[in-house]
Amino acid sequence: MMAVSRTEPNILITGTPGTGKTTLGKELALQSGLKFVNIGDYAKENEAFEGYDDAYECPILDEDAVMDGLEDIISHGGVIIDYHGCDFFPERWFDVVFVLRTNNTVLYDRLVQRGYSGKKLEDNLQCEIFQTILEEAKESYATQIVHELPSNTWDERHSNIQMILGWIDQWKKDHA
After folding, report:
1. Which CATH number covers residue 112?
2. Is residue 64 in some structural domain?
3. Residues 28 and 161 sit within 8 Å (Cβ to Cβ)
């Protein structure tokens, strides 16, 4: 954990692609005033890639470049990070980790809408079935800071936003 001289927490929102991380993170940032960083967008803006994965038809993230670039931003606190992986981020960066989970039928429809097909579609569905991101989070961070949230409907998203805003308020009180 980082030295708590920060006045605002750092939050990681993670989960399989299509679970609603970006939608949730942007809305949370809007309502909380915290800074939102989508790692995919950050990597594009800062050219933090180390190649291209032909099988998944996507760039390969340069994790070291991302971490080096974000270190200063994270150290000040008040950041919501959104990414589908979590095991490469230092544990000290985050005060809480929210892992979004989505029913496979809902997730399938979302991914197809995004244009996923073949291996990319199947592997992401398998990732959700086997709770790969949830297990990765539990192995990478203290279990008491890792929380699994359902992300199937707009009502669940609204409920998640309200719960996380409450968590942020409590964190601020506890660290005032």
Report:
1. 3.40.50.300
2. no
3. yes
The length of the chain in residues reads: 176
pLDDT tens, residue by residue, 131-171: 999 999 999 999 999 999 999 999 999 999 999 999 999 99
The reply to whether 2 falls in a domain is no
Residue 58, CB half-sphere, CA atoms under 13 Å: how many?
13
Which are the contacts of 140, defined by CB distance < 8 A and separation ≥ 6?
Answer: 86, 87, 89, 91
Tell me: the pLDDT tens digits for 81-119?
999 999 999 999 999 999 999 999 999 999 999 999 999
Rounded to two decimals, the pTM is 0.95
Please report whether residue 58 resides in a domain: no
- How many Cβ atoms are within 10 Å of 169's Cβ, its own excluded? 11
Domain count, the chain: 1
> Would you say residue 87 lies in a domain?
yes
What residues does 113 pair with on adjacent strands?
none
Give dist(CA 124, CA 130) in Å, integer. Answer: 10
Binding residues: 18, 20-23, 114
Annotated binding site for ATP: 18, 20-23, 114
